[in-house]
Amino acid sequence: MPIELPTLAHRDPVYRNGVQESKLRVISVVGARPQFVKAGPVSRELRKRHTEILVHTGQHYDDKMSAVFFQELDIPIPDHNLNVGSGSHGRQTGEMLDRIEQVLVKERPDWVLVYGDTNSTLAGTLAAAKLHIPVAHVEAGLRSFNRAMPEEINRVLADHLSSLLFCPSQTAVENLKREGITSGVHFVGDVMADVLFDAVERAMDRSDILRRLGVKERQYLVATVHRAENTDDGSRLRSIYRAFTRMEETVVFPVHPRTRKRLAELGLDTGSDDTRNMRIVEPLGYLDMIRLMLSARMILTDSGGIQKEAYWLRVPCVTLRDETEWIETVQVGWNVLVGSNTELILQKVVSLVPPSTRPSLYGDGRAARYCIEKLQKFQDPL
């Protein structure tokens, strides 16, 4: 049964320039490391004018994958921590759906705000849609066109159930248009740019990660692997890892917990002689990771967020996937797709030389402000 939603009369008034505006009550759903980064600037903008209730599903629960991001990015302490934890896609999403629904019934929000393409995104969207609460999706319209990816299923369903769709690129807008979604679609830019542009100076001042790891500017590579398409497929992970061990340069490899577990299951000994060129470390906090990437010669990753960060930081990127949602970075020559092929990875690490030009991509660093303005305009009848 749909819950009875608050009307404008139930909200506390907000006055700006002497004009009364409606104060929105918004539940933001986060659960994974990239979402914490994206939520930081949006939460700050939202709380200037409205009431936010932050829900952490617990999809990422390790301190190195969760708590440190809230501390470094000044994200408010979650109002609800659902402690769902890890598990199969079905079990994890089902647990989230049940617990988020309970929060929505209790809190009676005007909107539910979701981010990206994780199981937390899907669960938050489904719970809201079934209770007839409108959904705003930050980072809408991305497509890899690979339905084997769990993230692709999540983002497609979230987009088709959302009332407001905040797109990081014009390509994302066009993707939605091809699927018949035009209402409520806005190109706002990428909120991760808001975070990065603000964090670079702090990372330079506060992080001593280069000293701690014993690496020098432009004399090492940074590698990350976490997507299911690589970690769940033993042959792909072996091939990628083999390329890492054959690099002539130092490879700094912050290992995602799921990846570490899979490496152990595959019998890949991270302490053996063939890994002597590698610095295998625990997941890093945001400022340490930004500082590390900023001074790398090149980045190897299957992360969508890191592909963009590499571009903004002017570091060439080798993407360990067969496709990418961030195709613009490939089109302008700063990113290359290599899949999991060992020899191709090794070849591109040597041969990729980005062009001297680097056009602006994904907005102007004010995406969070635009998101809240659009949210206000959509809801406010004044």
Summarize the amount of helix as a percent range: 40-55%
Could you name the CATH topology of the largest domain? Rossmann fold
- The average pLDDT value, as a whole number, equals 90
What fraction strand? 15-25%
Q: What is the number of independent domains? A: 2
Instruction: Report the strand count.
Output: 15
| Spans where pLDDT lies below 50 across 5 or more residues | 1-11
For the report, how would you describe the main beta sheet?
7 strands, parallel
Class of the largest domain, according to the CATH hierarchy? Answer: Alpha Beta
CATH superfamily of the largest domain: Glycogen Phosphorylase B
Number of helices: 16
Shape: globular
Given the helix and strand composition, which structural class is it? Answer: alpha/beta
Short description:
With 382 residues, the protein is α/β, with parallel strands linked by helices. It is built from 16 helices and 15 strands. The protein has helices spanning 33-49, 67-72, 89-107, 119-130, 150-161, 170-178, 191-206, 209-213, 228-231, 234-245, 257-265, 286-294, 304-312, 327-331, 342-351, 367-379; strands at 13-16, 19-22, 25-30, 51-56, 80-81, 111-115, 135-138, 164-167, 185-187, 220-224, 250-254, 278-281, 298-301, 317-319, 335-337.
